[in-house]
Design a protein that fits this description.
With about 700 residues, this protein is mainly β. Strand 15 and strand 16 form a beta hairpin. The chain has 5 helices and 61 strands. It has a 16-stranded parallel sheet that branches. Helices cover about 5% and strands about 40% of the residues.
């Protein structure tokens, strides 16, 4: 059965023809659901949506189990919007500058997101560029990274870093950057005597002078630059300073959080060719459940954030997770959904993740979509952890396919958001995605720290192109980032380059705490600020037939050994990592770095049959073992790389990003195929060893 939707449609129409269309998708879906419930619907139904922009006063909700495809009619362009244009702009003057202002409805209590002529504009910030650094409070922070109750609702500032004359301090917000994440804080007051800013909500992490920076948002006196705005909560007015010469503009204020919900046991829905904009209207609270704010719906557990939530004080209010911005919902939100697909859709100009698959997801497909210019990240997939699923097996999520998507220019409001993150899921396929221009990791998989029991297993991360991440803002990231024991997981055929950290940890492939039983093979990793491959600690990972080229600290590094989470004492693995048939192409950086000598002394590393090369032709490789620097021959004397060679690998032009093999390349003897050259126009712009910038 086919039903038509059009802006000119009316309630009460049948929808069976374009002339008799209904006014919105929800009306059409509900009509089909009633027919399904009465047994009068068979086969695959279609909802054909005619040209136009459709505003959602409530989330579009799919809830029944019957097959239906929702798509544009013919070649019509269909936009699903969660925002409305603002009207009533009048000329005004503020801070000596001519601008515009308009009145907002009384229920609006904050404006974290605003879009003008299709682009995100920012609240008036101080400082205008860069960050301020918290003051050294002279305290010893010996209780770990987490901020303890009683000291998590203020932070010290340097003299002059908060102007006591600023208007309405309680209307100012703070974006604070730590090592690998950000905090979202609301100012309560400034205490000049104590030299601290007090906040209305809490921090997760300590604010330390050596690693914590911040900016103020929505400062009235700072509204001085084009494409900035200020929201006055007392008068409910919005002030906007447009670029010079702008007289007419369209400003969109998001009103909706989630745009589409797939839940309540929905089955069989396919969205195809639709555009979604202007969702994610507020800064969600972080907690054990998603902060969805949709009346009439049951709470949905946020399993990705629950483990973090248990480490801190549940009585405090937080607006941030400890990693990956996993507190955020998605514009498309799945819970208890199966056999659904999203294909060739576009999601942009929204505040959160494009799509979030929560608990109890099965056989879901996100294929060939375009997710870009988002305040959060691309796709987050989660399910219950081991203990939860042992009690309630239905909370597990598995068999999700994420393929062919283009995810870029994300994290503008939540920089720790990821391109794709999968937490406690199994049997998922992430293949052929293009991910670039984010501030944190490209793909993350696992979400168990150490060797504790986990639901993550048998996931495949294949043939993705990941580049230009970090941008010098955050630390401790990887193009592909893994956590915990993951038997059967395979990371293969990926191209990763241009990972740039702030303080440390701009790695290509990053096997973080407890990563185990993972095969990394046939990946190309180059031009990363730190290691091509870095294993914090783990066991029995296999690294084979990879190319690690011209990375800036070392080709491959192993941090330490650990037994966190072992159920039984004593040795539990024979090797931390096995490295075979890899190309380590080094130019001044270390070939292999073992942070601690005991990895060598306890024979926890196996490395052999690899190819090493320096483009200069000099065999001056360095293998760092703790404090010792070993030559290639000394490294071999420890029983490592006995059959490895120092030889020209026969690459066409590695220094300019062309890693295809010459006809006589020695790599062909080691099981490499013809090599690859990343698509033109997406090379990293980070600096090479010679200080020259690569061509974009």
């Amino acid at each position: 059965m086919e039903l038509h939707v059009a802006l000119t449609g009316r309630n009460g129409n049948s929808g069976e023809t374009a002339a008799d269309a209904v006014p919105d998708i929800q009306t059409a879906y509900d009509a089909l659901a009633r027919r399904h419930g009465s047994g009068t619907l068979s086969g695959v139904s279609r909802i054909l949506v005619h040209e136009g922009e459709y505003f959602l006063p409530a989330p579009l909700h799919f809830y029944a189990a019957f097959p239906v495809e929702i798509m544009p009619y013919g070649r019509d362009r269909v936009v699903i919007s969660g925002g409305r244009p603002l009207a009533g702009w009048t000329p005004a003057v503020l801070n000596g500058r001519r601008m515009y202002r308009c009145s907002l409805p009384k229920h609006v209590d904050a404006v974290p997101f605003l879009y003008v002529d299709g682009r995100a504009v920012r609240p008036a910030r101080w400082p205008k560029e860069g960050f301020l650094r918290v003051a050294d409070d002279g305290l010893k922070h010996d209780h770990g990274s987490y901020a303890l109750p009683g000291c998590n609702d203020f932070f010290p500032v340097k003299k002059g870093d908060f102007d006591p004359e600023w208007s309405d301090p309680g209307n100012i917000s703070v974006r604070m950057i730590h090592w690998w994440t950000e905090e979202n804080l609301n100012v309560a007051a400034y205490d000049p005597d104590a030299g601290v800013v007090r906040t209305a909500n809490s921090r997760i992490f300590d604010a330390k002078a050596e690693n914590t920076e911040f900016v103020y948002d929505n400062v009235r006196e700072a509204l001085t630059e084009p494409d900035e705005y200020y929201f006055d909560r007392r008068t409910h007015e919005l002030w906007y300073l447009p670029p010079a010469g702008t007289r007419n503009f369209t400003a969109i204020l998001p009103e909706r959080g989630v745009l589409v919900r797939f839940d309540d046991g929905v089955r069989g829905v396919t969205l195809r060719g639709l555009e979604f904009r202007y969702g994610g209207a507020y800064i969600p609270r972080a907690g054990a459940d998603y902060d969805l704010r949709d009346p009439g719906y049951e709470p949905v557990a946020n399993h990705a954030n629950r483990d973090f939530f248990s480490l801190i004080d549940p009585a405090c209010e937080y607006q941030q997770s400890a990693q990956g911005a996993v507190q955020l919902p998605g514009m498309l939100f799945f819970a208890d959904a199966a056999d659904c697909a999203v294909e060739k859709c576009e999601i942009s100009r929204c505040g959160w993740y494009a799509a979030v698959i929560a608990e109890a997801g099965r056989n879901l497909f996100l294929r060939n979509n375009h997710f870009h210019h988002l305040g959060g990240g691309g796709i987050a997939v989660s399910g219950g952890n081991f203990e939860t699923c042992r009690r309630e097996p239905h909370r597990h999520t598995s068999h999700v396919t994420i393929s062919g998507n283009h995810i870029h220019d994300c994290g503008s409001r939540f920089p720790s958001a990821l391109g794709i993150v999968m937490t406690q899921v199994a049997s998922c396929l992430v293949e052929g995605n293009h991910i670039h221009d984010l501030f944190y990791s490209g793909i993350s998989c696992g979400w168990t720290w150490g060797f504790h029991p986990t639901m993550a297993r048998e996931n495949r991360i294949l043939n993705n192109h990941i580049h230009d991440l970090g941008k010098g803002l955050l630390s401790d990231m990887g193009g592909i980032y893994t956590l915990g024991v993951q038997p059967g997981t395979r990371v293969a055929g990926n191209v990763v380059h241009g990972i740039k950290n702030r303080y440390y940890g701009g790695w290509g492939l990053y096997a973080d705490e407890g990563s185990s039983h993972i095969v990394f093979e046939h990946n190309l990793v180059y031009d990363c600020a730190c290691d091509g491959f870095h294993q914090h600690y783990g066991r029995e990972n296999v690294l084979r037939n990879n190319i690690f080229a011209l990375n800036h600290i070392c080709a491959a590094g192993v941090g330490r050994d650990a037994d966190d989470g072992y159920a039984s004492p004593g040795p539990n693995c024979s090797k931390a990592v096995v490295m075979m048939n890899n190309l380590f192409l080094c130019e001044g950086e270390d070939a292999v770095k073992l942070t601690f000598d005991h990895l060598l002394e306890r024979d926890l590393i196996f490395s052999d049959n690899n190819i090493f090369w320096n483009p200069s032709g000099r065999c001056d490789l360095v293998f760092l073992c703790g404090e010792r620097r070993l030559t290639f021959r000394q490294w071999q004397s420890h029983g490592l790389d006995r059959h490895s060679v120092f030889a020209d690998p026969g690459l066409r032009d590695a220094e300019h990003g062309d890693f295809r093999l010459k006809r006589d390349s020695i790599l062909r003897q080691y099981g490499f195929d013809g090599g690859r050259k990343p698509p033109a126009g997406v090379h990293s712009a980070s600096k090479t060893k010679q200080g020259k910038e690569k061509e974009k």
